[in-house]
Amino acid sequence: xxxxxxxxxxxxxxxxxxxxxxxxxxxxxxxxxxxxxxxxxxxxxxxxxxxxxxxxxxxxxxxxxxxxxxxxxxxxxxxxxxxxxxxxxxxxxxxxxxxxxxxxxxxxxxxxxxxxxxxxxxxxxxxxxxxxxxxxxxxxxxxxxxxxxxxxxxxxxxxxxxxxxxxxxxxxxxxxxxxxxxxxxxxxxxxxxxxxxxxxxxxxxxxxxxxx
Amino acid sequence: xxxxxxxxxxxxxxxxxxxxxxxxxxxxxxxxxxxxxxxxxxxxxxxxxxxxxxxxxxxxxxxxxxxxxxxxxxxxxxxxxxxxxxxxxxxxxxxxxxxxxxxxxxxxxxxxxxxxxxxxxxxxxxxxxxxxxxxxxxxxxxxxxxxxxxxxxxxxxxxxxxxxxxxxxxxxxxxxxxxxxxxxxxxxxxxxxxxxxxxxxxxxxxxxxxxxxxxxxxxxxxxxxxxxxxxxxxxxxxxxxxxxxxxxx
Lengths: 212, 249
Description:
The complex is a heterodimer. Chain A has seven helices and five strands, in the order ααββββαβαααα. Chain A has helices at residues 5-24, 27-34, 79-87, 104-115, 122-129, 131-166, 173-203, and strands at 40-46, 49-57, 60-64, 73-77, 99-102. By secondary structure, chain B is an alpha/beta fold. Chain B has a seven-stranded mixed β-sheet, with helices on both faces. In chain B, β4 (88-93), α5 (96-108) and β5 (115-119) form a beta-alpha-beta unit. In chain B, α7 runs antiparallel to α8 (200-212). The model of chain B has no long low-confidence stretch (mean pLDDT 90). At the A-B interface, α1 of A face α3 and β8 of B.
């Protein structure tokens, strides 16, 4: 389905509008991106197959779907690899299954710039709802977002002990370690036995002058 | 027994020398509402088809581009931005009414410094050999009387290495889609044409002319026969529209 240029062009248009709308409310990021004006980034998804190209222009980004020119940076991989890389944002490129070519330093610069993205959400809300209501709504949303993030962190911390200690559907770490130690010990015994058997076989072969 | 050569004007057979006049009549009639109708008929999707055409053109700063049947200037406006002040865009159309609408629109949007407007027939392009880096013809080829002549003319004025892009309605790749498309074309389009442009007949011609236009593979062969190399096509919206690309070696 994504191989229909119409659909992909629609995605590109929507992305372009979303990115540029966000950049409107973050002049800091916009001015940092201007330092990389002229840079191009190609995202090449292998499964499903499609490509998106991002061009850094003065004060805005253009998104395309096709170019014969070689992009400054090209990142390729399957969609699942891209999603995993986004989820594990702090890990290095080597740990992802993505293939990256071109100007890696520019990619690092882009990563740094976007990690510092600071959209002033209050501004579009005040434009829509007025100064007082917009500010109150922005404060409410900010608070909700912070609460949701805290809950998420707590949940992640408590999930593992809950599954192992309360529900007992997963073994505790100490139990796992004891099991791994037993497996290692068993493996050592098997290897020692195999070595003994090999020695005995060698001793019992006809070419051995000790045999009758 | 009549020896007169005839050609298609939609489903109607007309004398070859009359087709251009009949097509002119259609476009004189629709020129004023052309852009609005394009948006209504395609729900704005024609902008995505044209956007992809621009991307495939590979046009850069300093290039010289010919936009045939450029009409109201959608593509020319984008090309003007891409080629910059050192490049040139020629918006050519056989129809004076469409050309006037395009020129007025581009001037109103302050996009005209590097655009020239020329009334010209695609079959007899009035330009030197090997002149343009890129030629586009969007939704115009199906209206040309002799398509082979037009393709030969385009090849002549293209520079070696130059690209031709033909954006045109084509044959849907899916039978179910084709049926839905037929119902839409012959039922809804003339109705909208009557409502908005007060001209159902012209939009009926639109639907008929699309059905009489060569399909994807046939047009690709025609381009190869005309002398274009590396000819390929890209189906869009399930084959309702196809973008053909060829290069002059």
